[in-house]
Amino acid sequence: MFEGIGSTWRESLAQFKWADLKILFLLSFKASFSAIKSLLVSFWWLLFIVIPSITTLCLYLFKIDINLLISQQSLLTKPRSFLFFIFVSYIIFGLLHFLSLLALRPSLERKDIYYFLGSFRYFLGFFLISILFVVLFKWATFFLIPMLLFYLDSEGRFKDIFVSVKKGAKLVLYFLPFFLIINILLFLVAGIAGLSFGLIFGTMIFLFGLKSWQVIGFLIFILPSFFLIVSTIMSSYLVNYYSKVKHSHYKLFS
Q1: Which of 29, 34, 99, 157 has the smallest count of CB within 10 Å of its CB?
Q2: Buried residues in 143-173 as b, exposed as e (16+ CB within 10 A)
Q3: In a domain, 254, yes or no
């Protein structure tokens, strides 16, 4: 079952040689720039109109107090409303991650609105895999990406969910050193990005004396696009590595 795993581990470590790392980095940077451009052109209305409207509507309909939401006390005062709001948030950010990977994955199709809308038949399976994996393995969410990419490359049937999880887990196992190192590095990058975002907003609140409802309003409009851009940049390296491994070791996944 694990035949040749030693050689693939050595190969995955060799990816961190400067020459190979530089090539993959440049390819990833170019791919992420192109993907972000396609997403902003196709889904500006989703980022700046639909998602803010849905979020605002949820806050209003379920009468979630903004001050309690910030302090997370809504979980105690209105647990059902708070949990529903969290579920809606999971769907929104799951959708943004879905679009991000669609924009990054290699395809002969033109990455326009018709390409993205035609791929929505994959979203339910994509969301189920994401939720299951994030609940079970919160610390290793970047291991999830190969599974999602195998699913997006499948026919999108229900059984393909399990086949994709198996293939994705196999890819991670056979190239485990790479994924362990990159998982740590990407979590550090995510932490720095989150800290920077928090510092910027903290500074704005201090300088301009923003009230809680103003902060939430600003977040509703900015956070989705910020998440989409950061998610695309961070995922691009893994998507390119997935494509490289899938084609160079196609027999491993057949």
Answers
A1: 157
A2: bbbbbbbbbbbbebeeebbeebbebbebbbe
A3: no
